[in-house]
Amino acid sequence: MDIVEILSSGQRGRRLSFEMVREHEDRTLNATGGTGPLLAWMLRHPEVDCLGPGTGQVWTTCAERLAEALDQCALPEPSAASWRRALYASVECAAYWQPADSVDTLLGYEEVRPALRRVARYLAQHWPASFTAPVQREAQFQVAFVDDSDIDLYAYGTRPPAEVLGRWHEQVTADEHRNRKNLVRPIQHCPNGKWWVTPGPGLYESSATFADAAPLALWCQEDDFGWTEARSAALRIPDDGAVYEVHQPADWVELCRRYPLEVSANMRRVWWECTGRDGRWVIPNWQQVARDYMGVHLSVAGYLGCAGEVMDVGAETASMVAGWAPDVTYWFDPRVMIREPIHCWSVRDVEGVGEQWERVVT
């Protein structure tokens, strides 16, 4: 696994590299004052916040200036907290139902690649081992966010996984059949639809924790709804049974090749919006995957290298990871269950740090 490649080529990996440098510059400037290279770049190119999707000289010039700024930036010595904040920022910017934001777009330009690789090579030397580790069965935590519906942790796992996956498969195939007319329409006339690749709701979906015992899934959720309260509990995971590991694009591609499910009609418009690709799409058929594996784990490295990337599966087919949070494992085994006690979490504004998830002691 090439960590430098993940941090300089993967869409979310590139953004994490950028956010590590940007945050270090912000904190340095807050302490010393002045203007750093990235801030100077933003001030020089205020149009970055309003550039629409496309190409042209304006984009190229912005990319060249961004590369120059990154080359001039001091590289931080990463801490556990800075890795978490950068990962959170990268996940927060993911949006697979619309074009990528301007910074994500510019980070993908060839003009920026050498500067990003400089950052990536440095960060790879400080890479957390947990970001590429296989699933830690003894330290898996289910998270339930508290909103108007007040979903309880025990709402997960109330139906057998086979039933959940059966309903998921029926829904996806029915939607694909109903929307097949989208395959012959002009793509601009096709409606947007579901954009995520995860199995149906109701399965346990757990993650390990950061150093302060906060689950990764508490911090890192694509398309989050601004939750400020949550609950978590450990899961009891059987020791036997294989878990499929996704650490790099090749792992996801292999899963799609072994268990393909076509979703071209469903995904055509929505994934075209974020990738510009108009073609056949497949995702893993989770109902079939569950026959051979008790779960599928997307490591942090797997997320940074795969999320939002067009991955060729065959001569005419491709796939993408979308809606799957870093380090999350979806469990297909009915023996998985909640292990008490349940912990409560709340977002607090910590002076000098900003908003943080903190455990509520009762």
Walk me through what this model shows.
43% of the residues are buried. The protein is globular. Helices cover 39% and strands 17% of the residues. A hairpin with a 3-residue loop joins strand 11 (337-350) and strand 12 (354-360). The N and C termini lie far apart (43 Å). It has helices spanning 3-9, 11-32, 37-44, 57-72, 80-92, 102-107, 113-124, 161-178, 216-219, 249-258, 264-275, 286-292, 300-306; strands spanning 141-145, 205-207, 229-236, 243-246, 260-262, 280-284, 295-298, 311-312, 317-319, 329-331, 337-350, 354-360. The longest helix has 22 residues, at 11-32. The chain has 362 residues and is an alpha+beta fold. The chain has 13 helices and 12 strands. The strands form 2 sheets. An 8-stranded mixed beta sheet has the order 4-7-10-2-1-3-11-12. It has a 4-stranded mixed beta sheet with strand order 5-6-9-8.
Which features does this protein show?
alpha+beta; four-stranded mixed β-sheet; 39% helix; single chain; eight-stranded mixed β-sheet; 13 helices; 362 residues
Question: Which range best describes the helical content: under 10%, 10-25%, 25-40%, 40-55%, 55-70% or over 70%?
Answer: 25-40%
What is the strand tally? 12
SS element count, helices: 13
Overall pLDDT level? 90
Strand % is 15-25%
Which strands sit side by side, in order, in the main sheet?
4-7-10-2-1-3-11-12
Query: What is the general shape?
Result: globular
The N- to C-terminal Cα distance equals 43 Å
Report on the biggest sheet: 8 strands, mixed
- Structural class computed from helices and strand pairing: alpha+beta
- H/E element string? HHHHHHHEHEHEEHEHEHEHEEEEE
* pLDDT < 50 stretches: none
Instruction: From the alpha carbons, calculate the radius of gyration and give it in angstroms.
Output: 21 Å
